[in-house]
Design brief:
It is a single chain. The chain has twelve helices and 13 strands. It has 356 residues and is of the alpha/beta class. Helix 6 links the parallel strand 8 and strand 9. Strands 3-2-1-4-5-6-7 form a seven-stranded parallel beta sheet. Strands 10-9-8-11-12-13 form a six-stranded parallel beta sheet, sandwiched between helices.
């Protein structure tokens, strides 16, 4: 029987949550950890524990999966999971962890709850601001950019930015999906692609302003997602597509005139890298981690300067400029693979598990 000290437990509460960006990252990291273990077995036994009713991850061959009984939501994490993980290293990939866990690895993706409080409910803000400093105090902390490490330190979650190991996300999962074959929803006109969100820090209002700009009258605006800022009234040039599978998202990246990411703050900006790999030139805000991660492959513009975004789109109408941004974007995005991220995560976890 494997002794407890040689067992590593993965917090699978994310499997019961809506599949947002953080959950997508956790799924990719675990899938590629499993591939790494199959190729290069190690001395640790890994088990993914998830709440009752959560659908297990498909395709795992080395990492065991087990449903762990208990109450729903955060209570499961704080009670059932904390008890089951005693004496083992607990790996948490989706920002949260049991307050009473012993040895743990925690991936905290960003400091948005501090830097963009208006995007979250009062209860969510209160819980995260209470929980994050406490779980990170005793854990091995991982984050996804130097910007996130800095902002976590500024907001008191970390003693300083060097207390977190930076492991960037991958973006190459988008190429594992065959592009959808149906026609683009904007096939009759060139279109700008972006994300629809009612969270203020995502800055969807700038995208809607671009759709109204006379200088960009030749373009439609296609938005993935269905939520718009309160009071927003999109014009006939705006198309809302809702949530899409990766195959359809890849098709949009491949056929868009450009992908636009105007967020006031991001911890990493994964969609920008997806777009780059699929050959879409990217225009991104010069804020948050976007300049750090994607600045070499994307045109950057201030998130509150509509004219700068119009100029950036116009710049892409010049074939030589457009081709140069596409080529550079692919080069930058190609460095961010899930295999690399999972390898770095494995090293960090096994080092933490082996420490006294």
């Amino acid at each position: 029987m494997t002794p407890p000290a040689s067992r590593i437990v993965i917090n699978g509460r994310f499997l019961a949550a809506q599949n947002s960006g953080v959950q997508r990252v956790a799924r990719q990291l675990i899938a590629h950890l499993d591939r790494d273990f199959a190729a290069t077995p190690g001395r640790f036994d890994w088990t993914l524990l998830h709440p009752p009713g959560a659908e297990p991850l498909a395709g795992l061959t080395v990492i065991r999966q087990r449903s762990l009984p208990g109450p729903p939501g955060q209570l499961w994490e704080q009670t059932s999971l904390a008890f089951a993980a005693r004496g083992r290293l607990l790996v948490n990939l989706a920002n949260t962890a049991p307050l009473l866990s012993g040895r743990s690895v925690v991936m905290v993706h960003d400091a948005q709850v501090f830097d963009a409080p208006q995007s979250y409910s009062a209860a969510f803000r209160a819980w995260y601001r209470f929980m994050l400093p406490r779980i990170c105090r005793r854990a091995t902390v991982i984050t996804v950019s130097r910007h996130s490490a800095h902002r976590l330190a500024v907001n008191g979650v970390l003693p300083d930015a060097s207390a977190a190991q930076v492991i960037g996300n991958g973006v190459d999962h988008i190429l594992e999906e065959k592009s959808a074959e149906r026609p683009s929803p904007a096939s009759q006109r060139p279109f700008l692609l972006g994300l629809a969100s009612d969270q203020p820090h995502k800055n969807t209002r700038l995208l809607l302003a671009l759709a109204e700009a006379p200088a960009l009258a030749a373009f439609d605006l296609v938005l993935v997602g269905s939520r718009l800022p309160p009071g927003a009234a999109p014009s006939s040039r705006v198309r809302l597509l809702g949530r899409l599978p990766d195959a359809e998202l890849r098709m949009l990246y491949e056929t868009a005139f450009a992908f636009l990411l105007p967020s006031f703050t991001e911890g990493f900006g994964l969609p920008a890298g997806e777009a780059m790999l699929c050959g879409a030139p990217v225009i991104a805000a010069d804020s948050g981690a976007l300049a750090e991660i994607w600045g070499g492959g994307a045109q950057l513009a201030a998130p509150d300067n509509v004219e700068a975004w119009i100029d950036a789109v116009r710049n892409l109408t010049v074939a030589a400029s457009r081709n140069a941004w596409i080529e550079q974007g692919r080069k930058i995005a190609g460095a961010y693979t899930w295999r690399k991220a999972a390898g770095q995560l494995r090293e960090a976890c096994e080092r933490a598990a082996a420490s006294p």
